[in-house]
Design goal:
By secondary structure, this protein is mainly alpha-helical. It has one domain. It has twelve helices and no strands. Helix 4 runs parallel beside helix 8. Keywords: Membrane, Transmembrane, Transmembrane helix.
Length: 255
């Protein structure tokens, strides 16, 4: 618990993570308000549409979590951290836990803020959380962001350099995965098992059948063949596997 407390203080005591956290909340909420306000037919503003901006919030979430590791390597304070807590695996686990919890909290605020903004801008829209899918679409953002944060900590630990790690992970999460289905042959099948695509299966699942083709933009559905909760388990397992690789890598090289 002392390690977790120390990592919480280090993460939240500098301005940059606070700015990134604010961006991860404000951008999706503003996007939801703009989409709902521009809708000509309130019936097209669904719970799924209110959450369309979650993909805009993933970038600051990844940057926030990654910086919890790469900033220490940049300023070489990681050596003092490892001297104070020789168990390097425990240090990385604490960093991942703090980044995951903070990112999960940000996800909850962002998701319910976006839902509230949509209701404010389109008061006639049906935005009640009546089904399990609706609740996953909103409250599930906490889990989606939390797991993404663990992945970011793992990648940041392995790469160490902030700009390189952020470019690599953002490029993968926001562009590379979407391009895989275009690869001839097994591209479509491979895409079904890529982590962020599978994570979206838990969050948004299949397309909303009530969504009009000409209505407001909704998040693109996942192509995963897993059920929602199995998708979350797979997504989390990939994150933990990457964190395990990061721990092994860190133990084998100098700080």
């Amino acid at each position: 618990m002392n390690l977790v407390a120390a990592e919480r203080i280090k993460l939240l005591s500098t301005p940059a993570p606070k700015v990134l956290a604010a961006a991860a909340v404000i951008v999706p909420v503003v996007f939801a308000a703009l989409v709902a306000g521009a809708a000509e037919d309130p019936s097209t503003v669904t719970v799924g549409v209110s959450q369309a901006g979650f993909q805009l919030g993933i970038a600051p979430i990844l940057a926030l979590a990654m910086a919890s590791v790469t900033t220490e390597y940049r300023y070489e304070t990681i050596r003092a951290t490892f001297l104070a807590a020789p168990g390097r695996g425990s240090v990385l686990a604490a960093k991942a836990a703090v980044a995951g919890l903070v990112s999960g909290a940000i996800g909850l605020v962002s998701a319910f803020g976006a839902l509230g903004a949509s209701a404010l801008m389109a008061p006639e829209a049906d935005l009640a959380l009546d089904t399990g899918a609706d609740w996953r679409n909103v409250a599930g953002l906490a889990a989606y962001y939390a797991v993404a944060a663990v992945i970011a900590v793992a990648v940041g630990t392995m790469v160490r350099h902030t700009a390189a790690a952020l470019t690599l992970l953002l490029g993968y999460a926001m562009f590379a995965e979407a391009l895989v289905p275009a690869v001839p042959g097994a591209g479509v099948e491979i895409h079904r098992w890529l982590p962020f695509n599978v994570g979206k299966q838990f969050l948004i699942g299949a397309p909303d059948p009530a969504m009009a083709p000409t209505g407001p933009p909704a998040p693109a559905p996942s192509t995963s063949v897993l059920g929602p909760w199995w998708a979350l388990a797979y997504y989390a397992a990939v994150a933990l596997a990457l964190l395990g690789v990061a721990v092994v890598t860190t133990k084998r090289r100098d700080a």
